[in-house]
Amino acid sequence: MQSKQPPSVHIDIPAYGRHLSVPMGTLLSQALLAAGIPLRADCGGQGRCGKCTLNIRHADPDQRPGQWHSILACQSRADQPLDVELPAESILDAVGSLNKAAAGVEALPCLFASPGRGLTLALDLGTTTVAGYLCNLGAGKVLGTAAMRNPQGVFGEDVISRIRAATVNLEHLQQLQSLACRAIERISRSLLERAGQSVGRLSEVVVVGNPTMLHLLLGVDPSPLGQAPFTPAFVASRCCPARSVGLALAPQTTLRTLPLVSAFWGADIIAAALLHGLDQTADGAMLIDIGTNGEICLNQAGRIYGTSCATGPALEGAIIASGMLALKGAVDRWQVDQAGEVHYSTIGSHPKRPVKPRGICGSGVISAIASLLRAGMIDPSGRIDTAIARSRFWRGPNGQAHLMLVPAAETEHGRDLMLAQTDIRAVQLAKGAIYTGVQMLSRRAGLTHPDHILVAGTLGNFLDIEDLFTIGMLPGIDRKRIRMVGNAAGGGAVCAAFDPIFLERAEAMAGRIETVDLAADADFQARFVASLAFTGITGA
User: pLDDT value at position 494?
Assistant: First the structure.
């Protein structure tokens, strides 16, 4: 006996010219995803972030249309015919200029001309951000860069959520792979169009990323990454036809990935470490790659130690109340003057062509918290001081405390830019994880603290080092020994695209790295808890 199928419900999206028919009871977020319209879901569809807001009205053909009202797509089901409006800020399709590009990418030593070689896309497939670099190997040039939010975020902003989704349902694994492919296609087509090139000219895509991202891209079951003994299904570099994983690119285009080390250490940190010669530097050199997952490596006495820590997506602008990627319109820096007035800078803004703010990127969140700490509006425990911040204090419908940073009249979309108490707590957890990782990896290598530090990742080009010291993310070493290097993983991917020797070095380094499991250390939890306060830590 066949089970009875639920009746269909019609959904009209006039602005897109789309008319959907879905089974009654389908989540609207899933319905739109299946139709190729992924929405933001910074909280993984748990109804907390409010980023998947839709405007809907009931559209029963036998009745007058209902009134428009706002709902969360991840919490609302199609139970009757609907008309849907999609606010631009709810849609996960933005491709913009890449502001987190590797510092000096146009001057990397690997950029030598190789006549007869074609175009390659170097790609950093991050948990939160996908960053692409179009490389002309024949001319020895990087033609352009672009970035977008990883659309896999509809299944959660962290790797554990995505592993869980892929494990529970094989269809979800296929969807996660498809979403990664669509992001790569969108970035490649955008860059090729800008460069006046056709898709048929693209000969190769070189990808770096953490183990989960590469498993999902290749359609490999990631479940072993999420359960003991945490063993990847593969660690060696891969090379295959791009179309074999679902990439709609030219038939001759190949896909190449760099090697992994372990379930927690991927091709992205290997690429970043090699770019800055960590395998050849003096003792005490540390690289910290800050993203949704924080990776740390340290060169000491001929050995390379590596560890990872769960920082969460807050430092990339995700899950933040007013968060966004570091693209045009994002506030990246703040200052609070003695009168309590808040001043800010916006990415892409110029005195003659000002850009109204649209949101706050990861570096902007850290800068805001550091500035508010100095002004006393946030105390060292991370609590908003309502007495000092009273003119900017606001309590939401759920009772949560907020600070209004930019009034609605000054923003592009006409809504206040806010910093929520939960945003501050998320940054505390992230900075505590990084500081504890730095501290414990140094101890494992027999050091009190690293001799010098390179800070890579999403934050790289915009952070003020003093802000990092203010919130207590880094140990108290000489400021001159700390350098921001931008998206080093992306820069490493560029080097891998140009230089075949780089790929050989990547394989060699992967075999040398000694991974350190912080959670297995008896001191980890105590050290982590001790690092959460905003105390401006000055010693290791």
Answer: 95
If we measure between CA atoms, which residue out of 380, 381, 384, 369 comes closest to residue 334?
369
Model pTM score: 0.83
Task: State the CB neighbour count (10 A cutoff) for residue 429.
Answer: 17
Instruction: Identify the three-state secondary structure at position 341.
Output: coil
| Residue ranges per structural domain of the chain | 8-90, 93-311+437-530, 314-425
Name the CATH superfamily housing domain 8-90: Beta-grasp domain (3.10.20.30)
Distance CA 108, CA 233 (A): 33
Contact 272/289 with Cβ under 8 angstroms? yes
Quote the CA–CA distance of 531 and 534 in Å, as a whole number. 8
> For residues 264 and 297, is the Cβ–Cβ distance under 8 A?
no
- For domain 93-311+437-530, give the CATH superfamily: Domain of unknown function (DUF4445) (3.30.420.480)
Neighbours of 65 (CB within 10 A): 13
- pLDDT tens column, 101-110: 455 676 787 8
Phi-psi region of 30 (alpha: psi -120 to 50; beta: other; left: phi over 0): alpha
Chain position carrying tokens 């998320």: 426
> Is the C-alpha dihedral spanning 174, 177, 178, 179 positive or negative?
positive
Mean pLDDT, residues 52-59: 83
Cα(232)–Cα(264) distance, integer angstroms: 9
Residue 43, pLDDT score: 67
* Cα distances (Å, whole numbers) of residue 393 to 106, 220, 366, 422, 488: 44, 47, 19, 14, 38
Paired with 254 in beta bridges are 204, 241
For residues 400 and 421, is the Cβ–Cβ distance under 8 A?
Answer: yes
Q: Cα–Cα distance between 26 and 3 in angstroms, integer? A: 17
